[in-house]
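ok posting inputs for the fe (ii) ion job
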Amino acid sequence: LAKVYRELSRFEEALNHQEARFDLHQDLFNQGTDLRIKTLQIAHDTEHVRQQAEILRLRTTELEALVRGRTHELEEYQLEAFQRLAVLAEFRDTDTGEHTIRVGDLSAEIAHELHEDSEWCEQLRMAARLHDIGKVSVPDAILLKPGPLTTEEFEIMKTHTTVGAQILSGSTYPLIQLGAIVALNHHERWDGTGYPSGLSGVNIPRCGRIVTVADVFDALTSERVYKRAWSQEEALDFIISARGHQFEPEVVDAFIAIILRRHPHLRAVVDAHSTMPARPHG
Ligand SMILES: [Fe+2]
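and the output
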């Protein structure tokens, strides 16, 4: 239209139309620019949200790693505190804690041999170390007496089972709970002649029936103020003799299997017993 008006020399109309055309172009240009800016803005916002999500993910991963690290530290700390408690249990006997460690390891090995739940076996490895913790209450005059104990002294010695259970009672920590059961029952005997409760057979918790074999074997083969160290042969012979009396037969059989794997030459000791007539179980 502007062109037609110009050709007709109607310059004012031509100018008006030309300006109207420019305004229209301007509007179209602005609308296009707005759209591009909006598209860019959305793209920018999307990218921003994506980056925020990535930062959050990294922070969460970082926090998770931190929490994992702290939990591990706490577990290590608990384990160390537990081990030091176990050493305390034996401190006056040998001051090294080696007996408790060996009893724990042998108990776990017997439990594995008996196909007990493997997590429980590993708990027993630690819990068994606390079996004598109640000895902290037994006077040195009795605990370290070189000769045999009088009846009265033996009664006091027996209390290390109940005192140990008391020390470890009321814990919410499964390891300590198991330790309390072990401390209370590791001197019970299969035939009911043990202490403190005189329980017999399967009435004795399994952990007690296992730890007693490991404890007696290790005590026999160790030197103490009141006795020399027995040889492996002598100690194995004693354990087999007490099978079905002091000790649960199945636990003794598992123990024998372990000892023979460690010391195949001890087979003769086992064979000597298998040729003997069967003993009545008490
Ligand atoms: Fe004991």
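notes: The mean pLDDT is 88. Residues 11-90 form the longest helix (80 residues).
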